[in-house]
Amino acid sequence: MHSNLKLAQEWMDAIRHKTSGTSPRNYVEKVILEAFTAGYNELSDGCTAVSDLGWPIPYPPCVGHDWLYFTGKYSRAEADEWLKDAQEDFGMTSIRANLRYFGTRLFSWKAWRDHRKKKEKDPLYGTERWIVEERERRRRSENSKKS
Q: What is the number of other CB atoms lying within 10 angstroms of the CB of residue 32?
């Protein structure tokens, strides 16, 4: 099992314990586990332009939101609404989650557009296969810099 996926699952278990057994909503947990299983957490920048709130890994709700933008499985509005729900499930107050939601609605249009343009140019973009190939490209680039 991918170590970051295991860590994400441990965080979800900790949230269940912290919230007296309440789990993240099924659709929140499903997206986060998809993103981490695919290894997208290694490519995500976490919470763009705001803090990842001191998490030892990129903040799972932000990785999940980036995943939804990357895959384009849902509309931008649905992905942004998902982010608000996920942040609340991970313990953020409704007021703060709503403020971040409105900031996302106002300012993330360019990121959404950029993802859609990349998909138009490269049919593999938005897939797990693209992630594997991108990680390999990055490894080769790092190795060539070391040489």
A: 26
